[in-house]
Amino acid sequence: MKNIYLLGATGSIGTQTLDVIRQHPDKFRLVAFSAGRNIQLTQVIIEEFQPSYVSVISEEDAKKLSHLYPAIHFGFGSEGLITVATYDEVPGDEHFVLSAVMGSVGLLPTLKAIEMRRTIGIANKETLVTAGHLVMEKAKQYGVKLLPVDSEHSAIYQCLQGEDSKAVKKLIITASGGSFRDYTREMLQNVTREQALNHPNWSMGAKITIDSASMMNKGLEVIEAHWLFDMPYDRIETILHRQSIIHSMVEFEDTSIIAHLGTPDMRIPIQFAMSYPERIDLKQAKSLNLAEVGTLEFKPMDFERFPCLKMAYDAGRMGGSCPTVLNAANEAAVDLFLRNKISFLGIEEVVYEALSAHQTITNPTLDEILEIDCDVRKNIMTKYE
Ligand code: NDP
Ligand code: MG
């Protein structure tokens, strides 16, 4: 029995993780989880899974819940997130933390879980973008496995099973193109929040759906792959593959390419990470019908059409504190766009401005990262709110 500590249970990845747990009650037990502001869904999850510890964003909500469920412990805020990741009141054979919160708030709980030597399934890419060097260094120090949940990285991880990492020539990350893949730059000028939230292939949380439309998501994924697979940026390629059937590929020294194929269902990579190294049955997952698919289509990536992807490569190559700025500025910009304070193309402008104004710090410490993250957001909010 694996004890599961789930950060972000009320989100898109979180609820799909609960579905995997629901299917395998003999293998997984939800011990602790965090939610944000969706208290109604929090109650539904509590009643179904009877966890021991739950954390929410606000103290007021935590108080209300503890009156309703006196047998459960409640926490709130960033301390609560850390408690979920490190909760150790329930004995178990194995402990697995799944980080599915949105944004760099996932950083501290991830670092603390590593110190507890817990295996971590990481959907929360912003944590690796904002402080990849610290997370990977700590994981190495404590001998902790970080198992990717993002579909592209799970695909690459699976393509690498049993392979010699020294024989890898490059990683090839596929991109569906997001909601605006058929739009020109001119057409992007007046797109609305509702149009951007309408992703053609995947149903996901609001922030990542906007990131997919701007192609920043692919940029964040390039940085995520750089850290997870210790791969230099010039050996990480991105390619447009609108069907989302190949989830990513690895090319080896002998030019062989291994690809991972499947239907777009996030429960597959979630469960792969949770059950690793075992591969188990997933009910209701649909097999891919290749005869129905017929052909696979690819197109080169156009960096002028998708400047956010280019900015992410550049920030990754610059290294140091640049990816921290890229991530914080993007989180703030997407939030502004979702609240109709800036236009869709405003997102890339806000990120560009923040990167241009930043003096890079090489090898930033945790404190420096937290400070930069906070300052970048504050500056943007002061200017655009
Ligand atoms: P959602 O927005 O659907 O869910 C986010 C979760 O985090 C919710 O439980 C939300 O709580 C909680 N949350 C948000 N902000 C905070 C905060 N400040 N403090 C504590 N909790 C918070 O996002 P997704 O599930 O789509 O994405 C989660 C992560 O997984 C992201 O990093 C994303 O990039 C990554 N990912 C997602 C994929 C997908 O298919 N959705 C695919 C690959 C990666 P509440 O709703 O209760 O307020
Ligand atoms: Mg992805």
Automatic annotation (TrEMBL):
Binding site for 1-deoxy-D-xylulose 5-phosphate: 125, 151-152, 176, 199, 212, 217-218, 221
Top EC category: oxidoreductase
Pathway: Isoprenoid biosynthesis; isopentenyl diphosphate biosynthesis via DXP pathway; isopentenyl diphosphate from 1-deoxy-D-xylulose 5-phosphate: step 1/6
Leader peptide range in chain numbering: none
Protein function: Catalyzes the NADPH-dependent rearrangement and reduction of 1-deoxy-D-xylulose-5-phosphate (DXP) to 2-C-methyl-D-erythritol 4-phosphate (MEP).
Name of the molecule in the record: 1-deoxy-D-xylulose 5-phosphate reductoisomerase
Domain 1-deoxy-D-xylulose 5-phosphate reductoisomerase N-terminal, first and last residues per copy: 4-132
EC code(s) of this entry: 1.1.1.267
UniProt GO molecular function: 1-deoxy-D-xylulose-5-phosphate reductoisomerase activity; lyase activity
Keyword presence, NADP: yes
Superkingdom of the source species: Bacteria
DXP reductoisomerase C-terminal domain sequence ranges: 261-378
Keywords noted in UniProt: Isoprene biosynthesis, Lyase, Magnesium, Manganese, Metal-binding, NADP, Oxidoreductase
PANTHER family on file: 1-DEOXY-D-XYLULOSE 5-PHOSPHATE REDUCTOISOMERASE, 1-DEOXY-D-XYLULOSE 5-PHOSPHATE REDUCTOISOMERASE, CHLOROPLASTIC
Family, similarity comment: Belongs to the DXR family.
Binding site for Mn(2+): 150, 152, 221
UniProt: NADPH binding residues: 10-13, 36-38, 124, 126, 205
InterPro entries with a match to the protein in the record: DXP_reductoisomerase (IPR003821), DXP_reductoisomerase_C (IPR013644), DXP_reductoisomerase_N (IPR013512), DXPR_C (IPR026877), DXPR_C_sf (IPR036169), NAD(P)-bd_dom_sf (IPR036291)
Annotated 1-deoxy-D-xylulose 5-phosphate reductoisomerase C-terminal domain residues: 146-229
Cofactor: Mg(2+); Mn(2+)
Catalytic activity as recorded in UniProt: 2-C-methyl-D-erythritol 4-phosphate + NADP(+) = 1-deoxy-D-xylulose 5-phosphate + NADPH + H(+)
Pfam families: DXP_redisom_C (PF08436), DXP_reductoisom (PF02670), DXPR_C (PF13288)
